[in-house]
Amino acid sequence: MLKVETVYSVITQLNIVIAREIIFNDKTLINNAGTASTKSLLDYTGEDVTTLMGTNFESCFNLCQLAHPLLKASGYGNIVFISSVAGLKAFPICSAYAASKGALNQFTKNIALEWAKDNIRANAVAPGAVKTDLLDSLMECADVNKNVVEAVVSGSPIGRIGEPKDISGVVAFLCLKAPYFKCCYISDKLFF
């Protein structure tokens, strides 16, 4: 098994490459990294929590730090985080996942506040259940209760599992360059 320090070193090097390629060209950072684990609160291990927080929150934190000089130099910058409704509302068997997304939601607000002076906006999109390979694999796990997904779907205005295309329009809107807006103060917001 790899040491945590080795994994973080590789992730940091990869994040630098990704930040340079994406940010330099587009002036936008979309943080869409994520993983999930569904367990009872008492069944989570320290390793589970480290993995969830590292993937869902810390990787976004690190990419933002790396991207800041490029976003600032662009004259305007946009950061969009893909969060989850689980960071806003309690659901069974996903407490550590929800905590990582809740941290991401708060981080969005802090970045928007701290980096507004650098003309960088930050927003988060917090969808419910979305049809992805990750959701498919979670639903195949024996410990995932289909009622959890049904609870998320029943609380959704569209009443079904979302599709990636349902989210992409909001993300694209948030990435528009400020002159397209009559008022370009859309920052520090969660869209769900």
TrEMBL record:
Record keywords, A-Z: NADP, Oxidoreductase
Entry's Gene Ontology molecular function annotations: oxidoreductase activity
Pfam families xrefs: adh_short_C2 (PF13561)
Domain of life per record: Eukaryota
UniProt record similarity statement: Belongs to the short-chain dehydrogenases/reductases (SDR) family. SDR65C subfamily.
Descriptive protein name: Uncharacterized protein
Organism whose genome encodes this protein: Phaseolus coccineus (Scarlet runner bean)
